[in-house]
């Protein structure tokens, strides 16, 4: 699994996607403040556990929605995951969170999911 | 001697009432509050509005629900992690626990109280257990996530298949040989279902389409048909931040009050007129639960994120919202006391359960609870569909 992950990371297509999406996302961020404030981090973690958790499970092992564990997210690149959070999945129950979350907040949440919830 | 009597009295008073009265009290005014993040339930007394016991180590209780044994002494708690736990309300003990699947969503108890059925996402299907021992009795794989599992009269269970769009009716008269009737093509992504309090109609809500699928259990041979077809009339629904729940459907006289998916509306249908829509009630947000006070006069509604700090009350006679309250962030569930003079409201992010008087709408008191979600009173033991 680990090897596969590194291999993917260096794929030109993925790299290009990362660059393009980063540029797009960066343009929508007002300042360079990437990390949410500590107070906002607490709110975001509550949202993640309880509101995302209502479909994906409190521990992210899945429910009506798929599991969001580090293993299950390993093969998916970050911009795709951020895009799913912000825009939802058409035809599926996953709603767009763009109205509630800033792009940098979605990126921060993806990082938390990838390292696994404690 | 006189002093001895006083001393004895003092000792008796010092012992917690719950402990000494455990064998002598009834359970009719008891219930449980799920503390989902902590994996724990509280046993509560709704007459004294107090916590009696705390039962830990029940696993992952996100989306946990419960049913009660026929004698209303035991709660069967269904956890997300596939755990089925049997809790003794009188002693506050975890009597038994099995982890019967990888991912579960709820359960039901049979008409005769002998079978507990669990609906599973992983592996998709229903498993049935002996209510006394929790020994496995039947396994019904479905190849799909199972939602909306309820008990029905004549020792049957009914449930829906989220991925396949089917409703299955299972006769469990002989637990060793479940007799299954399948209804295919009921609509896209049934996400939850209800059974009317008389046990006659099973109604599955559809996520993938504007409409609901109805099975008349008095006439199962007529099959499943669509009601409220196209209630959104082609308008784009709003993003759904939390699925509505259909269990505990609000019924008032001949009217049923159903939460609309992706809309700030409660749909009102006339059950006597073939489930035709007779009205829509605009509400504060996307409804999650719409539950009726046991007498049917009021319908209490809570809402999905980001409107989940509010509860509204609909008057069944005028079909209008007559009261709104803001208990606090994250109102997840509502449960009435058996005859409905109080409603218990879990306020997740405030770590509180609030108790309201349903006549005056005044707050009677609050109980501390760690991220409370579902509240379940033992009166459910004697109701069809709970």
Provide a descriptive summary of the structure in words.
The complex is a heterodimer of chains A (118) and B (386). In chain A, 60% of the residues lie in helices and 0% in strands. Chain A is mostly helical and 118 residues long. The longest helix of chain A has 19 residues, at 38-56. Chain B has 386 residues and is mostly beta strands. In chain B, a hairpin with a 2-residue loop joins strand 9 (115-122) and strand 10. Classes of the chains: A mainly alpha (118), B mainly beta (386). The interface between A and B is medium-sized, with 21 and 30 residues.
Task: Summarize it.
The complex is a heterodimer of chains A (118) and B (386). Chain A is mainly α and 118 residues long.
- The structure class of chain B reads mainly beta
Terminus-to-terminus distance of chain A: 22 Å
Biggest interface reads:
A-B, 21 and 30 residues
Gross morphology of chain A is globular
- The oligomeric state is heterodimer
The rough form of chain B would be described as globular
Beta fraction of chain A = under 5%
DSSP summary: helix tally of chain B: 2
Total of helices of chain A: 6
Radius of gyration of chain A: 14 Å
Using brief descriptors, characterize the structure shown.
heterodimer; A: 118 residues; mainly alpha; 6 helices; 60% helix; globular; disordered N terminus; B: 386 residues; mainly beta; 4-stranded antiparallel sheet; 5% helix
